[in-house]
Amino acid sequence: AAPSVPFAPTLSSSELWRCFVGADAAVYCLGQDLDGRLGGAGGTTSTPVMVPVSGVMFRQVVTGAAFACALPSDASLPHCWGNDGQGQLGDGPGGTGAPTQIPTCG
């Protein structure tokens, strides 16, 4: 049976996938997991999958063409995952695509 996912206060949708912040403040994604867009779940799913970032509560998520970023509730630096071909995840071009906290600038 599919896991019960609570009310989604924020939702961001791209062409082949979407992510939302659940009432438990975790980020869930569903759709095609190309380039790690679902946080590394693999394959395609119509069942929401929790993005594997432990110990962080989120307040907002935004999806790009092939990556996503989520803002933590404590206003710390965002976590991003998915396609990193242009370094958009903050860990240099070609990074792992796994959920990563964006480093500070400066």
If you had to describe this structure to a student in words, what would you say it looks like?
The protein is an all-beta fold. Helices cover 0% and strands 38% of the residues. It has no helices and 8 strands. The protein is globular, with a radius of gyration of 13 Å. The N and C termini lie far apart (47 Å).
Question: Which short descriptors sum up this protein?
Answer:
single chain; 106 residues; mainly beta; four-stranded antiparallel β-sheet; 0% helix; 38% strand
Care to give the gist of this entry?
With 106 residues, the protein is mostly beta strands. The chain is built from no helices and 8 strands. A hairpin with a 6-residue loop joins strand 6 and strand 7.
Secondary structure: number of strands = 8
**Uncertain residue segments:** none
Enumerate the strands of the largest sheet in spatial order, edge to edge or round the barrel: 1-2-3-4
Q: Strand fraction band?
A: 35-45%
Largest sheet data: 4 strands, antiparallel
* Rounded average pLDDT: 79
Count of separate DSSP helical elements = 0
Helix coverage percent of residues? under 10%
Q: What separation lies between the terminal Cα atoms?
A: 47 Å
